[in-house]
Specification:
The complex is a heterodimer. Chain A contains no helices and 11 strands. Chain A has strands at 4-7, 10-13, 19-25, 31-37, 43-51, 54-57, 64-66, 76-78, 87-94, 102-103, 107-111. Chain B is an all-beta fold. Chain B has no helices and 11 strands. Classes of the chains: A mainly beta, B mainly beta. The interface between A and B is medium-sized, with 26 and 25 residues.
């Protein structure tokens, strides 16, 4: 079955450490996205990529980095520069042109 | 003014009644509109897409779009306890059709 796989489901890190969240899709979608969700809040866009080897900053890119070396994969690194990294991180993909997003199951990151 | 505004709720509706969820947006250039349902601790799932003015029905769900008044709504008929969730309104950003902008969500509770 096609879908988006995020791993791990839960992640715990100490402050000051970089951490990479995995996102893999087998839907053959060109576009991929990373959103962050804080408790009781909507989704805020971190980065998105419309094609391999290209990506753009979203609304809250500071302290994050991404890569898009393969169509299927769009990993997100939360760096030590991100001041409030504890959140629920959602990866999504879509076909181009205003189509709806398909979401993975999310990774809940806790930094202490 | 936020790009997408929703009443955060909570909205409480008796079982069997109609639940009405509303969303307003600021930019007239938005073309595609979506409603997502999100259960606590889970990722959002798409329940409705609407692209042109008027009503779109799918089972117990009806999406309504009025571009002149810049609002989109979701009606849930014969509400069930399993409809209790947070409902997120989303739309494509006029700055780039690949970007989806989300409201903060409305928490809906269906009371048996």
């Amino acid at each position: 079955d096609g879908g988006i796989t995020q791993s791990p489901k839960y992640l715990f890190r100490k402050e000051g450490q970089n951490v990479t969240l995995s996102c893999e899709q087998n839907l053959n979608h060109d576009a991929m996205y990373w959103y962050r969700q804080d408790p009781g809040q909507g989704l805020r866009l971190i980065y998105y990529s419309q094609i391999v080897n290209d990506f753009q900053k979203g609304d809250i890119a500071e302290g994050y980095s991404v890569s898009r070396e393969k169509k299927e994969s769009f990993p997100l690194t939360v760096t030590s520069a991100q001041k409030n990294p504890t959140a629920f991180y959602l990866c999504a993909s879509s076909i181009p042109g205003g189509s709806p997003l398909h979401f993975g199951n999310g990774t809940r990151l806790t930094v202490t | 003014q936020k790009e997408v505004e929703q009443n955060s709720g909570p909205l409480s509706v008796p079982e069997g009644a109609i639940a009405s969820l509303n969303c307003t947006y600021s930019d007239r250039g938005s073309q595609s509109f979506f409603w997502y349902r999100q259960y606590s601790g889970k990722s959002p799932e798409l329940i409705m897409s609407i692209y042109s003015n008027g009503d779109k029905e799918d089972g117990r769900f009806t999406a309504q779009l009025n571009k002149a008044s810049q609002y989109v709504s979701l009606l849930i008929r014969d509400s069930q306890p399993s409809d209790s969730a947070t409902y997120l309104c989303a739309l494509t950003s006029p700055q780039g059709a690949q970007k989806l902008v989300f409201g903060q969500g409305t928490r809906l509770t269906i009371n048996p």
